[in-house]
Amino acid sequence: MSQFATKFEAVLPATKRLLLWLLALLMFIPAALANETWELEQRSPFNEAIQQASPLTHTPLTKANKPWKLCALVPHLKDAYWIGIDYGLAKQSQALGLGLELHEAGGYGNNQTQLAQLKSCLDGDADAILLGAVSPHLLEGHTLELTKPVLALVNQLADHRVQTHIGVNWYQMGYLTGEYLASTPHKRLAMLAGPEGRGGTDLVEKGVKQALQDSQVEIVAVMHADNNRNLYRDQLNLLLNQNMQPLPQALLGSAVAIEAAMGTLRQRSLTNQLALVSSYLSPDILRGLKRNKVAYANDDRVVLQGRLAVDLAVRLLQGEKAFGDIGPAILQLRPDNLKNMQLDDSLAPADFYPVYRVEAKGSELSR
Predict the structure, then answer these.
(1) What pLDDT digit, counting tens, does each position of 228-246 carry?
(2) Are 346 and 303 in contact (CB under 8 A)?
(3) CA pair distance 126, 65, nearest whole angstrom
């Protein structure tokens, strides 16, 4: 498909290139799924910060017993992380002939928007709901009756009625990052953390601090902001303008924060003055690793998370029991180990645009 598309890229209009991509995807998926297995982790106790993980080889479904319809709710589609989740959801829904509707809340502060979207999914014709919650406490104090299976997607959800969580342990994401930093000569760390109390921010911070507890690394600044490149850029400039002496030797943040930091440090002629460490992966972070501009990044394989979420939703609808905490093992990426890593399920393709609807048993993805 890629050779064919590349050969005619210059002459095909954008709409025809999209149709070509969709046609190739339809022809490719069934064969790709036929002999596929996924290496996962099963974690316990459920919904706890500190967990034990057991390796699990999972064989995904190659067909569903009916064209189920799924409703997916996500905080936003502003960065490569949730776009990768979207790609995995759409890809697996297409492969199994399912219907999918995706709604974004517009940001982590929009609890009421997501609650309204959840109610719409519960009242509509969706069979199951994949909920990437804007807050782990989204359902607390609300009387919404969960009349359909609800699976927590990526972010934890504190509700006893939700007993399947697809994702990774964000405390562990932080802990692994802290372990890496403890092994380096960088002893002064600044953190550009995500939205306070939202997503995995608090868990990442706790994991980092626990891993650094007995090390010589000092956290000299922690700054919170919504996952927005401009906000992170402002925060970093504010930090650097304080004339802190000596400067931090390492900067840890979300992928969006580290993307902003690469540009800001270049503008201020401080490139390579701070070791850049990302709590998760994006295309720009991957390029930074390849160019030795980023020292370390976790990879929680977001495309696989999206695909797994669809697979498990179908299994629940077809009578299987809840799956607890389940997801991919976290990969630890550095410039010196990239060649040994399999990253096919880590990022959406560069030419992928957000998909909001997949028609059941159809071939059209609606934007």
Answers:
(1) 788 999 999 988 888 777 8
(2) yes
(3) 16
